[in-house]
Amino acid sequence: MEQFLLPVGLTLLSFLTTGVTSLQCYRCLINPPPGEYYNTTKRLCMHFDYSDRFVVDCPYSTMCMKQEFHLDIQNGVRIKGVQRDCALQKHETQDYKNGRWFPKVEILEPYREGCEDMDDKGERATPTRYCYCRKNLCNSSPNTSHDGYTDIMGVIVVFNLMKYINSLR
């Protein structure tokens, strides 16, 4: 009997100690979300340094995402930005069973691994590249063009300044 219990006990112990964890990705935000209760200024992309403070669990994602974009302003100056996060895959609906509504959560798979430039479809939109990957912390690469990045807050300030200058004319 002891010979049987020892392997079973070790197997159960291994399940308890390893556990199932969700995918981990880097998350950095372009600007803090609204609301005083949500203090995330330490996770702004301008402070991104590959440290543990930028690592998050992604229970509703099977992929990490990195978004790269740039804004061309006057005199050939280009301002670039990067945002990292869990891929948005959570789909919430309501399911009707036995005369009652119940919340239903599904994880969709709308993305392919790799990078893709978004077509602006003739609009004057900011060129954006989305990259998706399936391994822990795989959205860590600095960028795909190997240029340096400037804080996106600079983009917002310059954009608003240009808008203000144009309104004076």
- Calculate Rg over CA atoms: 22 Å
Distance between the termini: 90 Å
Largest sheet: 4 strands, antiparallel
Number of strands: 8
Strand order, sheet with most strands? 4-3-8-7
Structural class, by secondary structure, is: alpha+beta
3D shape: globular
Strand content: 25-35%
Low-confidence stretches: 1-19, 145-155
Number of helices: 2
Mean pLDDT: 76
The helical percent reads 10-25%
Write the layout of secondary structure elements.
Blueprint: H1 2-18, E1 23-26, E2 55-58, E3 64-72, E4 78-86, E5 90-97, E6 100-107, E7 114-118, E8 128-133, H2 152-168
Antiparallel strand pairs: 1-2, 3-4, 3-8, 5-6, 7-8
Kindly describe this structure.
There is one protein chain. With 169 residues, the chain is an alpha+beta fold. It has helices at residues 2-18, 152-168, and strands at 23-26, 55-58, 64-72, 78-86, 90-97, 100-107, 114-118, 128-133. The strands form three sheets. A four-stranded antiparallel sheet has the order 4-3-8-7. A two-stranded antiparallel ribbon has the order 1-2. A hairpin with a 2-residue loop joins strand 5 and strand 6 (100-107). The longest helix has 17 residues, at 2-18.
